[in-house]
Write a structure and sequence with these properties.
alpha+beta, 6-stranded antiparallel β-sheet, 6 helices, 30% helix, 11 strands, 5-stranded antiparallel β-sheet, single chain
């Protein structure tokens, strides 16, 4: 699985049975992790939040798939950890527009990926004003201050009802870049309007001089 650096299996109590790092059975437990609790409760795929791996201590987001037992009740889970640094590199390689920002946060507002400056932001909580802005404008596009207090045109998305429920993605674009084409078209329109007005004024002035006799040339009967 691309980006996965850890795979493991637990029992129904959250105790590790085996993993790709060679930990002994029962060496540690993950019963306190949200993804484990969610997978066991729903018997369905579950996603965690930003954490430092219990064994690797690396910043990660983890996913769990329940192992079905008798009566469809889970006997444990299979879990994998995704390297957030790999994820940031992968998203960066997809080609954001110049001067754009990308912020991916978990359900608690913890930053999973931040472009640019991923290493400086990963794991930190979203600032309250930014969290409020994205929470109140899911699915919308608004002007709002980014993490570095620069106002950007920001599109906000949050998957609902699927395996990525709980993630929030915000893409910010500098207004100058966002509206460059619109502004250029507006400027052309303004120039054309001004040119038309000047031509109309010149035509009226010329017509007045040709068709309206000067006052000194008028004769009163």
């Amino acid at each position: 699985m691309p980006g996965a650096f850890f795979l493991g299996v637990t029992d129904a109590e959250g105790r590790i049975v085996c993993n790709t790092l060679g930990s002994k059975p029962g060496a540690y437990a993950i019963a306190d992790r949200r993804y484990f609790q969610e997978a066991m409760r729903t018997a369905a795929f579950a996603m965690g939040d930003y954490v430092a791996g219990r064994v690797t201590n690396q910043p990660t987001i983890q996913f769990a798939q329940p192992i079905r037992g008798q009566d469809d009740r889970p006997d444990g889970i299979v879990l994998t950890s995704i390297d957030l640094t790999w994820l940031a590199r992968n998203l960066s390689a997809n080609g954001l527009p110049p001067d754009a920002t990308l912020t991916v946060a978990d359900r608690n507002g913890g930053i999973l990926v931040r472009l640019p400056d991923h290493e400086a932001w990963a794991g930190k909580p979203l600032p309250p004003a930014f969290l409020k802005g994205v929470s109140e404008n899911l699915g919308g596009v608004i002007d709002m201050e980014g993490l570095r207090s620069r106002t950007r045109l920001t599109g906000i998305a949050a998957p609902n009802g699927n395996d990525l429920d709980g993630l929030t993605v915000a893409v910010g674009l500098a207004r100058d870049a966002s509206f460059a084409d619109i502004d250029a078209a507006t400027r052309r329109g303004i120039v054309l309007i001004l040119a038309g007005a000047l031509l109309a004024f010149a035509a009226a002035l010329l017509g007045g001089r040709v068709f309206i006799p000067r006052s000194g040339a008028c004769s009163v009967p």
